[in-house]
Amino acid sequence: MDGPTALTEAVRELRDRGGAVLAAFLAAVGVTTLVARDSILQAITQQQDLLDSIYAAYADAGIDRSQLPELTEFATPLAVDISYGAGVALLFVAALLAEFGTIVVLRVVAGESPRQAAPRRIGRTLVFGFLAGTVVRLLTVVGLVLFILPGLFIGVSLLFVHASIVIDDTGPLAAFEHSWELTSGRRFEVVSVGLMLVALYATPRAFAPLIPGTAGVVVMGATSGLAVLLSAGVVGRTYLALRDGEPDAESTDEETEDDDADPYDAPLGPDDLPEPE
């Protein structure tokens, strides 16, 4: 299954009332994430000792302060007046909520209703899914930083770890193995799905800044949440197609021809001849 086909199927599965609720939920989570980000940045700029420790960490890594942007120059339109620790906690809660929404989306595109999908083994799935997703992202980033092609290979090979855990209740280690097996021999096919995910991720960040002021930031947060919805749907539909196996066109044509064939056109066998009286 290619990226556009997976996206079409995901939209079809999510275009009912349940999908609208999930879209609103993830859009709100996207905005909350930016509120947490801006609040953390504002808290950092208000604490000189914390600011100095950040620059000191970069200096220890051999990066001169002159090479870094001044944190005080960043706009924080969605910041609320909370401490640094509270901002980090809010960001973590937003990440867990995004994980929860992704879990429900994956299960909905697999045929479950939102009422069934939300509570089913949610604690286990939330922990395993969050940790496995974090590991996959770290491995992919490390591969991209060191050597670009290994990062792409890892990202494609482990694309369905999360879906395996969420949809089929697979354990983390088995999910890694399952994703690797599903993509084996199909990695070039899965690349188109990966490109679709990149496009969904990049679109809000490319167009939302065209809207000036705070409204643009809010739009970016909301559309980023919608991108999470569609991305999960794309991954889920592709995972199901690979897991269950897509029908081969030639075999389908042969089956159709067999169904249309006249059974009386077959040659007679010994059992078809009448016995002599």
UniProtKB/TrEMBL annotation:
Q: Does the keyword Transmembrane helix apply?
A: yes
- Record field: compositional bias (Acidic residues): 247-263
Task: Check the record and name the InterPro entries matching this protein.
Answer: DUF7847
* Region span, Disordered: 244-277
UniProt keyword annotations, A-Z: Membrane, Transmembrane, Transmembrane helix
Q: Where are the transmembrane segments?
A: 20-36, 84-110, 122-139, 213-235
Q: Protein name, please?
A: DUF7847 domain-containing protein
